[in-house]
Amino acid sequence: MRSKTGDSDRFRIRPYQPDDLDDLCRICLQTADNGQDATSLFRDPKLPGYVYVAPYVTLEPSLAFVAEDRSGLGGYIVGALDTRAFEQRLERDWWPALRARYAEPSQDQADELSRPEQYAIHDVHHRWSIADDLARCFPSHLHINLIPRLQGRGIGRRLIETITSSLRNQGSPGLHLLVGFSNKRAAGFYRHVGFTEFPAASLHIFTMDLPTQAPKAGVYGR
Ligand SMILES: CC(C)(COP(=O)(O)OP(=O)(O)OC[C@H]1O[C@@H](n2cnc3c(N)ncnc32)[C@H](O)[C@@H]1OP(=O)(O)O)[C@@H](O)C(=O)NCCC(=O)NCCS
Fold first, then answer.
1. pTM for this one?
2. Whose CA is nearest to atom 42 of ligand 1?
């Protein structure tokens, strides 16, 4: 697969393999501060990966894809086909071990942590359930992250196309994703590649229908 700018800028998108996990956790850390590097913001550099990427590649490996160029692996997209069912599996098979490993801090202890670390530990301990209308019409969801070297080269678009094709093949009628209000770059990207904003108060929620028919040119914003 080639980027728009030529041979020196070649990249490849391929399915996730178990050996990729450490790289994915590194990428997750390097983008965990609303898309920016959070390396200095976590006491345990593995924490964001354990929360935001490892459960997906472990429980839904058929919806995990990575992007690499000649310098190595630098991006991924992961998803869950049925968010409600995924949440139940996390509650049963994933969060208990993490809750034992990362104790919930007292208010005073939490005040000492960075905002991204507070959010990650909160997500470990508190089940987050999507609204019924979102679960019904857009049951799937995704996370996408590229380190700066791979950004702005058309790879994000290709990763979205890759996972939406897989979700369609697996019978999903639609997907949603969540974006912090301060991640303006990501919000602009999602609008541009064809997502629609769903009303929400505390963060952006974007949705996309996944019609069974192959979409005509233009559905991704060209
Ligand atoms: C956000 C992100 C996934 C976008 O991926 P990308 O590879 O940089 O984007 P692409 O190069 O594929 O851009 C695809 C299209 O979107 C457009 N686009 C990208 N960012 C845009 C923005 N902020 N506003 C408007 N259009 C934008 C591009 O111009 C391009 O348009 P075209 O295909 O019509 O020429 C990537 O930058 C990233 O991972 N950022 C850091 C982590 C992050 O924030 N993840 C999302 C967390 S919710």
1. 0.93
2. 35
Instruction: Return the best residue to mutate from 192, 205, 219 for the ligand 1 pocket (most ligand atoms within 8 A of CB).
Output: 192
- Does the CB atom of residue 146 touch ligand 1 within 6 A? yes
Interval 13-61: pLDDT, tens = 999 999 999 999 999 999 999 999 999 999 999 999 999 999 999 999 9
Report whether pLDDT(12) > 80: yes
Q: Whose CA is nearest to atom 33 of ligand 1?
A: 154
For the domain covering 7-209, report its CATH number. 3.40.630.30
| Ligand 1 neighbourhood includes 193 CB (under 6 angstroms) | yes
Domain boundaries, the chain: 7-209
Would you give the end-to-end CA distance of the chain in angstroms?
A: 19
CA 63-66-68 angle, 5° bins: 165
